[in-house]
Write a structure and sequence with these properties.
Layout: H1 2-18, E1 24-29, E2 37-41, E3 47-49, E4 61-65, E5 75-83, E6 87-95, E7 111-119, E8 147-150, E9 153-158, E10 164-170, E11 176-184
Antiparallel strand pairs: 1-4, 1-6, 2-5, 3-4, 5-11, 6-10, 7-9, 7-11, 8-9
Length: 185
Protein backbone atom coordinates (compact mmCIF):
# COMPACT_ATOMS: atom_id res chain seq x y z
CA UNK A 1 0.00 0.00 0.00
CA UNK A 2 2.70 2.49 0.97
CA UNK A 3 4.76 1.42 -2.06
CA UNK A 4 1.81 2.22 -4.40
CA UNK A 5 1.33 5.58 -2.70
CA UNK A 6 5.01 6.46 -3.10
CA UNK A 7 5.00 5.45 -6.77
CA UNK A 8 1.89 7.59 -7.40
CA UNK A 9 3.47 10.52 -5.54
CA UNK A 10 6.67 10.18 -7.56
CA UNK A 11 4.75 10.10 -10.86
CA UNK A 12 2.68 13.18 -9.95
CA UNK A 13 5.79 15.05 -8.79
CA UNK A 14 7.59 14.18 -12.02
CA UNK A 15 4.69 15.34 -14.16
CA UNK A 16 4.38 18.66 -12.33
CA UNK A 17 8.14 19.18 -12.45
CA UNK A 18 8.02 19.02 -16.26
CA UNK A 19 4.80 21.01 -16.67
CA UNK A 20 5.41 24.35 -18.31
CA UNK A 21 3.14 27.36 -18.08
CA UNK A 22 1.55 28.30 -21.39
CA UNK A 23 1.51 31.88 -22.67
CA UNK A 24 0.23 33.35 -25.93
CA UNK A 25 2.96 35.13 -27.86
CA UNK A 26 2.42 37.60 -30.69
CA UNK A 27 5.40 39.08 -32.52
CA UNK A 28 4.86 42.01 -34.87
CA UNK A 29 7.64 42.44 -37.40
CA UNK A 30 8.14 45.58 -39.50
CA UNK A 31 11.86 45.01 -40.15
CA UNK A 32 11.66 44.19 -43.88
CA UNK A 33 9.65 47.32 -44.74
CA UNK A 34 11.48 49.42 -42.12
CA UNK A 35 8.18 50.27 -40.42
CA UNK A 36 8.96 51.49 -36.90
CA UNK A 37 6.44 50.27 -34.35
CA UNK A 38 5.37 51.91 -31.10
CA UNK A 39 3.55 49.72 -28.59
CA UNK A 40 0.47 51.50 -27.20
CA UNK A 41 -1.01 48.65 -25.17
CA UNK A 42 0.51 45.41 -23.93
CA UNK A 43 -1.54 42.31 -23.04
CA UNK A 44 -3.36 42.54 -19.68
CA UNK A 45 -0.92 41.39 -16.97
CA UNK A 46 1.48 40.35 -19.74
CA UNK A 47 4.53 41.97 -21.32
CA UNK A 48 5.19 43.89 -24.49
CA UNK A 49 8.19 45.85 -25.76
CA UNK A 50 10.61 46.58 -28.58
CA UNK A 51 13.19 43.90 -27.76
CA UNK A 52 16.68 45.15 -26.90
CA UNK A 53 18.03 41.64 -27.58
CA UNK A 54 17.56 42.32 -31.30
CA UNK A 55 20.88 43.82 -32.30
CA UNK A 56 19.47 45.39 -35.46
CA UNK A 57 15.89 46.52 -35.94
CA UNK A 58 14.52 46.60 -32.38
CA UNK A 59 12.41 49.67 -33.23
CA UNK A 60 10.78 47.70 -36.06
CA UNK A 61 9.73 44.74 -33.92
CA UNK A 62 7.29 44.25 -31.04
CA UNK A 63 7.35 41.25 -28.73
CA UNK A 64 4.22 40.52 -26.67
CA UNK A 65 3.46 37.71 -24.26
CA UNK A 66 0.22 37.13 -22.37
CA UNK A 67 -0.02 36.40 -18.70
CA UNK A 68 0.02 32.69 -17.86
CA UNK A 69 -2.95 30.95 -19.44
CA UNK A 70 -4.71 29.39 -16.48
CA UNK A 71 -6.92 26.78 -18.08
CA UNK A 72 -8.24 25.52 -21.37
CA UNK A 73 -10.99 28.17 -21.25
CA UNK A 74 -10.70 30.94 -23.84
CA UNK A 75 -9.23 34.20 -22.52
CA UNK A 76 -9.07 37.69 -24.03
CA UNK A 77 -5.81 38.90 -25.59
CA UNK A 78 -5.47 42.52 -26.71
CA UNK A 79 -2.58 44.71 -27.81
CA UNK A 80 -2.25 47.97 -29.75
CA UNK A 81 0.58 49.58 -31.71
CA UNK A 82 1.16 52.50 -34.06
CA UNK A 83 3.36 52.34 -37.19
CA UNK A 84 5.48 55.35 -38.19
CA UNK A 85 4.71 54.97 -41.93
CA UNK A 86 2.56 53.16 -44.48
CA UNK A 87 3.72 49.62 -45.19
CA UNK A 88 3.39 45.99 -44.24
CA UNK A 89 4.07 44.20 -40.98
CA UNK A 90 4.08 40.50 -40.25
CA UNK A 91 2.04 39.00 -37.43
CA UNK A 92 3.48 35.82 -35.90
CA UNK A 93 1.14 33.88 -33.59
CA UNK A 94 3.23 31.62 -31.38
CA UNK A 95 3.54 29.95 -28.04
CA UNK A 96 6.33 30.92 -25.69
CA UNK A 97 9.93 29.80 -26.15
CA UNK A 98 10.96 27.10 -23.69
CA UNK A 99 14.20 25.16 -23.57
CA UNK A 100 14.77 23.10 -20.43
CA UNK A 101 18.09 23.69 -18.70
CA UNK A 102 20.75 21.39 -20.07
CA UNK A 103 18.76 20.49 -23.20
CA UNK A 104 19.90 21.24 -26.76
CA UNK A 105 16.44 21.88 -28.23
CA UNK A 106 13.41 23.83 -27.17
CA UNK A 107 10.18 21.91 -26.60
CA UNK A 108 6.63 22.55 -27.77
CA UNK A 109 4.44 24.58 -25.44
CA UNK A 110 1.18 24.77 -27.38
CA UNK A 111 -1.14 27.78 -27.40
CA UNK A 112 -4.47 28.12 -29.23
CA UNK A 113 -5.68 31.26 -31.04
CA UNK A 114 -9.11 32.14 -32.42
CA UNK A 115 -11.44 35.03 -33.30
CA UNK A 116 -8.71 37.51 -34.23
CA UNK A 117 -10.13 40.95 -34.95
CA UNK A 118 -8.11 43.99 -35.97
CA UNK A 119 -9.12 47.65 -35.76
CA UNK A 120 -7.04 50.07 -37.86
CA UNK A 121 -5.98 47.42 -40.41
CA UNK A 122 -7.45 44.33 -42.05
CA UNK A 123 -6.90 40.68 -41.27
CA UNK A 124 -7.86 37.77 -43.50
CA UNK A 125 -9.75 34.88 -41.91
CA UNK A 126 -9.23 35.70 -38.24
CA UNK A 127 -11.59 32.84 -37.34
CA UNK A 128 -9.62 30.25 -39.38
CA UNK A 129 -12.93 28.97 -40.83
CA UNK A 130 -12.08 29.40 -44.53
CA UNK A 131 -9.67 26.80 -45.90
CA UNK A 132 -7.61 26.76 -49.08
CA UNK A 133 -7.34 23.73 -51.41
CA UNK A 134 -4.52 22.31 -49.23
CA UNK A 135 -6.61 22.41 -46.04
CA UNK A 136 -4.76 25.40 -44.56
CA UNK A 137 -6.54 28.49 -43.23
CA UNK A 138 -6.78 31.09 -46.03
CA UNK A 139 -4.56 34.10 -45.48
CA UNK A 140 -2.23 32.30 -43.07
CA UNK A 141 1.13 30.64 -43.48
CA UNK A 142 1.05 27.62 -41.20
CA UNK A 143 1.05 23.84 -41.24
CA UNK A 144 -2.26 22.08 -41.96
CA UNK A 145 -1.84 20.01 -38.78
CA UNK A 146 -1.95 23.23 -36.72
CA UNK A 147 -5.64 23.68 -37.59
CA UNK A 148 -8.06 22.20 -35.08
CA UNK A 149 -11.70 21.59 -35.91
CA UNK A 150 -13.86 20.75 -32.91
CA UNK A 151 -17.63 20.94 -32.50
CA UNK A 152 -17.95 22.86 -35.79
CA UNK A 153 -15.42 25.50 -34.66
CA UNK A 154 -11.98 25.95 -36.20
CA UNK A 155 -9.00 27.47 -34.42
CA UNK A 156 -5.23 27.27 -34.64
CA UNK A 157 -2.69 25.70 -32.30
CA UNK A 158 0.87 27.03 -32.39
CA UNK A 159 4.14 26.80 -30.54
CA UNK A 160 7.41 28.69 -30.90
CA UNK A 161 8.72 26.58 -33.81
CA UNK A 162 5.35 26.19 -35.51
CA UNK A 163 3.78 29.64 -35.84
CA UNK A 164 0.87 30.99 -37.85
CA UNK A 165 1.89 34.05 -39.87
CA UNK A 166 0.07 36.75 -41.81
CA UNK A 167 1.19 39.99 -43.45
CA UNK A 168 -1.07 43.01 -42.89
CA UNK A 169 -1.03 46.49 -44.40
CA UNK A 170 -0.72 49.39 -41.96
CA UNK A 171 -1.00 53.17 -42.35
CA UNK A 172 1.22 55.87 -40.91
CA UNK A 173 0.20 56.99 -37.40
CA UNK A 174 -3.00 54.90 -37.49
CA UNK A 175 -3.30 52.91 -34.28
CA UNK A 176 -3.79 49.17 -34.83
CA UNK A 177 -5.59 47.17 -32.13
CA UNK A 178 -5.48 43.39 -32.23
CA UNK A 179 -7.99 41.40 -30.20
CA UNK A 180 -8.12 37.61 -29.99
CA UNK A 181 -9.15 34.66 -27.89
CA UNK A 182 -6.32 32.48 -26.56
CA UNK A 183 -5.99 29.41 -24.39
CA UNK A 184 -3.55 26.67 -23.52
CA UNK A 185 -3.85 23.33 -25.24
Amino acid sequence: MIKNYLVALLVCTSISAFAVDSHARLDINGIVGKVKLTLNQKPAKGVGYNPSWLKVGKDYFIYTLSARLKSDDWEDFEIAFTPDKDGFVILNLKGMYYKPKGKKKNIAVWTCWDNIVIEGAEIVNGTFDKLDKNGKPEGWITKPENLISKDGNKYIKVWFNSAATQKIKVKKDQKVTIKAKVRKL
